[in-house]
Amino acid sequence: MDRIPEYVTTIIMQSREAEDRKPFLEALVRLAVRAAWEPIKKMVEATGAPEIQRACQILAVLICPAPEKHKAVRAGALRPLADEGLLAISKERLAQVFPADWVRRLQEGFGDV
Fold first, then answer.
1. Are 4 and 37 in contact (CB under 8 A)?
2. pLDDT higher than threshold 60 for residue 111
3. CA-to-CA distance for 113 and 110, rounded, in angstroms?
4. Helix, strand or coil for residue 108?
5. Is the dihedral of CA 73, 10, 30, 20 positive or negative?
């Protein structure tokens, strides 16, 4: 848990470099990551990692503008939620939000995820 901020800082720096984006000072990234990590760490310790992971998966689906086009969201968020049975509870809501064809494929078991 204590090494996560270092790992996230490294990934952010590498990602910005790989995408030819303007670099941030590593010290600023490290400071921002640590500031963001402390409340998350407290939540994980208080509620447990599985609950935080589930909340992040739900947020990923809701935040992503086109989950049907993003394999990482489908594989890392939608599939685990479906395996857990949450989609059975939410079929009606999914049908209201996502294209009918996509919802049908979800209900058929994520044939091409």
1. yes
2. no
3. 5
4. coil
5. negative
